[in-house]
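WARN retry 2 of 3 for item q-0093 after timeout on previous attempt; input resubmitted unchanged.
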Amino acid sequence: MKKNLLLYLFAVLCTVTLFTACSDDDETPNPTVPVDEELAGRYKGALNVVLDMENGTDMPAGTVASQIVTVTKAGENAVNLQITDFSFMGMSLGTINLENCLVYETSAGVYEFEGTTSLNVPGLLSAAVEADGRFSNGTLYLDLDANNVSVSGNPVTYTVDITYNGTKMTGNESSAADFTSFVFDREVAEVDSLVIGEPVIDTAEKTVTFVVADTAKAEHLAILVPTFEISPKATVTPASGVAQDFSNGKVVTYTITAEDGTVAEWKVSVNGNTSRYSFETWSGDDPEGWATCNPAVTLIKSLGFIGGISYDGPLPITVDENGFEGKAVKLQSIDTTGGDILGTPVPKVTAGSMFLGTFNATAAVTEGDAMATTRFGIMYDKKPLAVKGYYKYTPGTNFYVGTELNTEREDACALSAVLYEVTDEKETLNGNDIYTSDKIVAMAQFTNGNAVENWTEFELELEYTKDYDPTKLYKFAVIFSASEDGAAYNAAVGSTLWIDEVTILNEGNPDVVEDTPEVTE
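OK item q-0093 returned
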């Protein structure tokens, strides 16, 4: 018989009223059965389903490792038995009730019961059901046999045998049914290295979510191997260390059963994908695809003689070996002396800045617009939600507005992210309109004028002001500056910003288009 027919049969057996009475026997019950003192209570144990085939072989058809059976008093010598929250092969089948079962003491401390009934669903299913059970020294054994099973009038070639062995609980068992840790360990499976950061365990919502690298493909997510720990004395299925399929938005359900039988279903899924920049491979040029203001200072060094400018100081953007992890990027606003080159003003202070995009150092001369040197943004086919990372900051002294010293102003660092729509890859926003253009779809900004001596985590959560449309073209810019108003050449000499371990969190799973975030008016 096919498995789906078996499941259907078993579901019907468990959800229809199964027993009219545990026993129709007229024997006089033993008046000394200690129902309240010894038998009544909650039992926890293993429930097994076996098919007794016509050829004499047994075929296992499912196991519930931590099934709860509740025994209550039905009379002086009778009990009710209830199998609650019963599930079979991942299906929740409700409750099985065995009512008014007469109990007999067959030997010292051993109490048995039995009964028969018939099951009949007109035109669908019929079966004769036999039950017998035994209480002994705080344990419960139960055997349910469905015989002469007929489906739609056709007899089947096996009987269904359900057995249960449980131990009476004390009432002091823990009800905790939680994940206490959940990781993807590269030592277990190399593909697990695509998981970025620590999974988030939400005990209230019974969820575990995690993000993956933007290089993760569906075939990678189909073989991730979670390893985890759960509440003490609880059990879980599926087990830890077993590969699961998280591809294409799939949600994996884990069932945790507490020591006292409390059952919790946990949903585990990918919450998004990330682009990560650790800056470990940067040796001095633009770091890992980021643009910096270094070319502008290099231009001043090479062409300064035309305007009589002599600058031989350091570049604003350099490597710092003492990052949050490994190397970091150091952004410093430097004194580049002022003056002009071919009639184009050279700022007194060049703010240390870097961003996703490109820097056109000659645009200030060829286009007569210093703001046009910054071409913010890279083509982006994902939906960014937030930018995270770590930073330190030291504000400088001697604040200049253009070339004039202003003793009343103080500097501040600026961290921002901007997503904007474009018609083609050549279109770009620059220093003139990166924060004001009507093409902007989402933005996040953070500034701080106080000294931050130790590595501190930051998070830029983008606020969407327009609908995100995956069919359109977008550019995404992440901008870091040691001087908040540096684009207008207003900055303090010596302001220094350190940046490390930058992560862009994108919504959705690889190969899946998700709903857009809610628009803020």
